[in-house]
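Tokens for chain A. Residues wanted.
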């Protein structure tokens, strides 16, 4: 399999699994408290990752510099964003959350300008981001209600924007410092710290009296641990090394599309014109942002031309 095909397949896989994770998380938190659910999810994923790391005989860096790096990633990629997202979920509509988090690619583009010198934010990428954001807005505009706007709603909106900013920083941090670290280790070590933090905080702040690990809760938890954590994050950190951070951040536009169509398929939700238009804009945004690469696919190969 060529590397280009592998990149495409893993990109699609990440978008699909993370898109389906919203439905799995919804099923999971019905019977299990949020922090307990996320902490258990990460812990199960870490057990699986540890087995893979030992089987593949991958070395885990244990010096203080790497440990500090892993801890920062655990906070910026897992613990803090998850806490902020759960906090916001209790205060603002899911549609508004999706639209606000769609600022993620813009934040990656802005931060990459200051943090990564060899990544350029081109005009086509900006147009692609605007189209993608417009698409997400169309998809969720019917699920926005701010009539009763108050301090709690404002704090929820700030939480989502802060979550997007922190995750944008985390992506670029890994892009800069995680080049020589195995994607398995890059997933395992920060996730282990995140599992410990989530479970400890959960023990002190959450009420377990109504926690029930039902069949649906257990199956969704295993799905989130295996596919939503191991498969996706290993793939994601591998992709970080292979493609530009801004293009990778476009997953924030695609995952809501996947979530909506799964809701239509599994939840018997209605289909509207806005859904089709929004999907079209998201896909158009992806096409525009990757315009140069698309042209290369259709460009005739010339054996006498050494330029790629």
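Reply:
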């Amino acid at each position: 399999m060529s590397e280009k095909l592998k990149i495409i397949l893993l990109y699609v896989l990440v978008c699909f699994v993370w898109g389906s994770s919203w439905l799995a998380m919804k099923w999971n938190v019905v019977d299990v408290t949020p922090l307990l659910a996320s902490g258990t999810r990460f812990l199960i994923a870490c057990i699986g990752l540890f087995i893979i790391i030992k089987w593949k005989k991958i070395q885990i860096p244990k010096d203080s510099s790497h440990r500090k790096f892993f801890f920062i990633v655990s906070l910026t990629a897992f613990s803090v964003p998850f806490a902020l997202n759960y906090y916001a979920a209790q205060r603002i509509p899911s549609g508004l959350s999706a639209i606000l988090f769609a600022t993620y690619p813009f934040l990656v583009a802005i931060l990459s300008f200051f943090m990564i010198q060899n990544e350029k934010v081109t005009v086509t990428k900006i147009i692609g981001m605007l189209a993608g954001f417009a698409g997400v807005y169309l998809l969720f505009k019917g699920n926005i209600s701010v009539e009763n706007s108050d301090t709690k709603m404002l704090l929820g909106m700030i939480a989502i924007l802060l979550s997007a900013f922190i995750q944008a920083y985390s992506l670029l941090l890994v892009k800069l410092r995680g080049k020589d670290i195995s994607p398995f280790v890059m997933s395992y070590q920060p996730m282990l710290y995140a599992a410990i933090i989530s479970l400890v905080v959960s023990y002190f702040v959450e009420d377990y009296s109504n926690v029930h690990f039902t069949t649906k809760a257990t199956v969704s938890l295993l799905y989130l641990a295996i596919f939503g954590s191991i498969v996706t994050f290993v793939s994601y950190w591998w992709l970080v090394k292979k493609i530009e951070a801004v293009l990778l951040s476009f997953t924030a536009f695609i995952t809501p599309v996947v979530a909506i169509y799964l809701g239509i398929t599994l939840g018997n939700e209605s289909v509207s014109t806005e859904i089709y238009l929004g999907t079209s804009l998201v896909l158009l945004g992806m096409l525009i942002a990757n315009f140069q690469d698309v042209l290369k696919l259709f460009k005739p190969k010339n054996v006498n031309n050494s330029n790629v």
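The chain has a mean pLDDT of 82. The radius of gyration is 20 Å.
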